[in-house]
């Protein structure tokens, strides 16, 4: 962490909590076992509370070492006063010669290499415990991200009671299934990376394009998704798909400043000021993209990263290589034929063959209206009608899209398009 005299100790603690709470949780979960996750959380919370009391007057030269030492001391105190925990640990580490040997084992759990492996194991453990992707995200944010219940509720637009209950269900499932970090082999779970990638991508997308709530972007979720993806690489799980996912996230992250206006309004890709795009992040995206090319398997992350890279290198919207984009979108639809991938392909098709041809393609694929809450279908249809000056027809589709959209930034954008089409329709009738 960079030293900055303008940052208060409280702010430094906040940054470090994000950065290090997951490490401490992984180390202590490995030592105590996941069935005692509540004790792990207590130790981590008490450690940072101690930092809040001490650091304003005595800020340590090595904050991580200070936190790790305090966490270990608090864990030792817990063991000494809690006979149930002590008996559990003696049973777990059955070959101990002396109680003090427990503390040597705990020191080993805080080794950086072991912490990295156990952070990965925590990612996998959450996937073992529940098939619900939202609950997996909650578990990951709570254990590895250092997010509090209220922060998760705010980020995912849920009430705090629901977040707490869903988290407890996952923890309970871990206990009932008897899942421990020692049961999760890094080598064996490489096959489960697809599921972990999916959860991380869902987390990133929730930040990049919030499904509901007043804000379109939630940067803290995007940064957390990138941090978690890097954990996969640090755990020696080299996987080209992980690099492709990181590449995609960096390309998208680079466009953050251009996607939203000063009033929080959505700015479409064609209208974005590309000078606001972060060239350094784009460069990092290409580094990971290059690394992703070493494997033989082509994943949807590879194709989406290729699509994002084309947008990032185009000087403006019109000069984009739309033919190459259509090629990539065709590949993506073949690999992942979802309504969203079909709709994105139609938007690209419009740029090559015009809105009339694209609208015909859209109407020939009525299945794109499913699921019923897919507002994007009506938003795309409204745009295609509007571009052909069919304003009255566009009004109906923008109204349908507006009724289904949940994010306030997108609702404001759709409202603007709706009102403009109403004005244009009335002018055409005069």
UniProtKB/TrEMBL annotation:
<dbReference type="InterPro" id="IPR046531">
    <property type="entry name" value="DUF6596"/>
</dbReference>
<dbReference type="InterPro" id="IPR013325">
    <property type="entry name" value="RNA_pol_sigma_r2"/>
</dbReference>
<feature type="domain" description="RNA polymerase sigma-70 region 2">
    <location>
        <begin position="25"/>
        <end position="82"/>
    </location>
</feature>
<feature type="domain" description="DUF6596">
    <location>
        <begin position="193"/>
        <end position="292"/>
    </location>
</feature>
<protein>
    <submittedName>
        <fullName>Sigma factor</fullName>
    </submittedName>
</protein>
<dbReference type="Pfam" id="PF20239">
    <property type="entry name" value="DUF6596"/>
</dbReference>
<dbReference type="Pfam" id="PF04542">
    <property type="entry name" value="Sigma70_r2"/>
</dbReference>
<dbReference type="InterPro" id="IPR007627">
    <property type="entry name" value="RNA_pol_sigma70_r2"/>
</dbReference>
């Amino acid at each position: 962490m960079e030293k900055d005299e303008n940052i208060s100790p409280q702010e430094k603690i906040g940054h470090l909590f994000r950065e290090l709470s997951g490490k401490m949780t992984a180390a202590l979960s490995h030592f105590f076992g996941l069935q005692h996750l509540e004790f792990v959380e207590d130790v981590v919370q008490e450690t940072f509370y101690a930092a809040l009391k001490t650091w304003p007057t005595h800020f340590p030269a090595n904050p991580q070492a200070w936190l790790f030492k305090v966490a270990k001391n608090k864990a030792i105190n817990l063991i000494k006063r809690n006979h149930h925990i002590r008996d559990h640990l003696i049973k777990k580490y059955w070959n101990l010669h002396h109680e003090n040997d427990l503390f040597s084992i705990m020191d080993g759990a805080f080794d950086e290499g072991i912490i990295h492996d156990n952070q990965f194991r925590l990612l996998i453990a959450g996937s073992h415990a529940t098939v619900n992707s939202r609950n997996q995200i909650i578990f990951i944010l709570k254990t590895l991200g250092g997010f509090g219940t209220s922060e998760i509720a705010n980020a995912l637009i849920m009430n705090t009671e629901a977040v707490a209950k869903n988290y407890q269900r996952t923890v309970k499932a871990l206990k009932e299934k008897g899942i421990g970090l020692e049961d999760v082999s890094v080598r064996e779970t490489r096959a489960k990376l697809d599921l972990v990638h999916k959860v991380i991508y869902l987390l990133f997308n929730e930040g990049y394009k919030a499904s509901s709530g007043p804000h379109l972007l939630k940067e803290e979720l995007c940064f957390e998704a990138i941090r978690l993806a890097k954990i996969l690489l640090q755990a020696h799980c080299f996987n080209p798909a992980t690099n492709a996912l990181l590449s995609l996230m960096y390309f998208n992250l680079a466009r953050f400043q251009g996607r939203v206006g000063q009033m929080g309004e959505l700015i479409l890709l064609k209208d974005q000021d590309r000078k606001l795009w972060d060239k350094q992040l784009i460069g990092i995206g290409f580094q990971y993209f290059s690394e992703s090319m070493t494997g033989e398997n082509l994943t949807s992350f590879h194709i989406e990263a290729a699509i994002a890279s084309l947008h990032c290198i185009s000087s403006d919207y019109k000069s984009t290589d739309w033919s190459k984009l259509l090629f990539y979108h065709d590949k993506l639809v073949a690999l992942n034929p979802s309504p969203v991938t079909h709709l994105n392909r139609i938007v690209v098709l419009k740029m090559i063959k015009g809105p009339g041809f694209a609208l015909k393609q859209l109407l020939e694929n009525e299945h794109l209206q499913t699921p019923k809450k897919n507002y994007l279908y009506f938003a795309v249809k409204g745009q295609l009608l509007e571009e052909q000056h069919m304003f009255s027809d566009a009004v109906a589709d923008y109204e349908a899209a507006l009724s289904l959209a949940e994010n306030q930034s997108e609702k404001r954008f759709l409202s603007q398009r709706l009102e403009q089409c109403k004005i244009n329709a009335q002018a055409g009738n005069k």
